Amino acid sequence: MAEDELEIDIDDLTRRMDGAMASLKQEFLSLRTGRASASMLDPIMVESYGAMTPLNQIGTVNVPESRMITVNIWDKSMVQKAEKAIRDSGLGINPVVDGTIIRLPIPELNEERRRDLTRVAAQYAEHARVAVRNVRRDGMDQLKRAKSAGMSEDDNKVWSDEIQELTDKYVAMVDSALEAKQAEIMQV
């Protein structure tokens, strides 16, 4: 067997684990922390001209102050649909329509809601950990195939340790991101 066929693609494993972290960060952005953030509206889709369109593509999203988001809808006929999509989004925000501008006052979070959000953040983090472990499993499967194809015990041990170190590093990154997000949510 050629030596390069026995190599494990650590760059691919790293890229896939980076993808799990990016996905986690995107999910964390959708969690409301009591502070207004334009990214809170990213998952909201509006039925626009027969197709589902992200809210930020039918209007301009602004954060004029820490407890207010405004959405300036470009097409007046889309204002009611956008308002309905925001109401139905589950964010717990009550939109106020003023012409083509939709104002979204962000209410203060109570203690119970903060705890609920920390649990949701923990679920997101667990999904990211599972994704990282799945990438690790794929790497270990590659290693088993390489070993059966003639990789030496020493090389197998080196690659196994490297894959495990990479996994441990990304799990630690998920844990620290979760701690930071939970502290942000619980901050009054």
UniProtKB/TrEMBL annotation:
Pfam families: RRF (PF01765). It is found in: Cytoplasm. Residues 24-186 form the Ribosome recycling factor domain. Keywords: Cytoplasm, Protein biosynthesis. It comes from the Bacteria. SUPFAM superfamilies: Ribosome recycling factor, RRF (SSF55194). Belongs to the RRF family. This is Ribosome-recycling factor. It comes from Meridianimarinicoccus marinus.
